[in-house]
Amino acid sequence: MEKKKVLVVDDDRTLAQTTAEILRTNGYEVALAYDSYQAITNAFNAPPNLILLDIKMPAGGGMNAYASLRSSYKTMDIPIIFTSGVSKEEFVDSVSPKDAKNFVGKPYNMDELLQKIKTLIG
Question: What does the pLDDT look like over 10-40, one tens digit per residue?
């Protein structure tokens, strides 16, 4: 069976790499991006099964990446889980209702995050 691919996008490289290692341990293939530009480029060139997207980061921020990903037929249906130190209420109005429920605050509970990923992509 082919592994599900998760794109982890976070400007905190240590957190991104730690998250990637835990996801790999749990059977996922992982790609990393450290800013919005890398996230969009990576998702367009090798679409993942799910994107873990930090909201506050350089090169346009997570919300600009979100808008770009949702505007392309190649990436519009990829599930996105938002991560951030900001509260869910601070961003929920600028995303689709379907995507708004997929939020995990930082610092996140890895078990909660893994459960959300499993629910969305298996």
Answer: 999 999 999 999 999 999 999 999 999 999 9
Q: Helical H runs in 26-60? A: 36-45
Q: How many angstroms separate the CA atoms of 59 and 107, rounded?
A: 22
**CATH C-level class of 5-121:** alpha beta
pLDDT digits (tens, 9 = 90+) for 42-73: 999 999 999 999 988 877 788 889 999 999 99
Domain extents in the chain:
5-121
Query: Are the CB atoms for 63 and 32 separated by under 8 Å?
Result: no
Tell whether the torsion through CA atoms of 85, 34, 41 and 113 is positive or negative.
negative
Q: In sequence order, which residues have a C-beta less than 8 Å from that of residue 9 and are 6 or more positions away?
A: 16, 32, 33, 34, 35, 36, 38, 39, 51, 52, 53, 54, 57, 62, 65
The values of phi and psi at residue 118, to 5°, are -60, -40
Helices marked H in the chain:
13-25, 36-45, 61-71, 97-100, 110-121
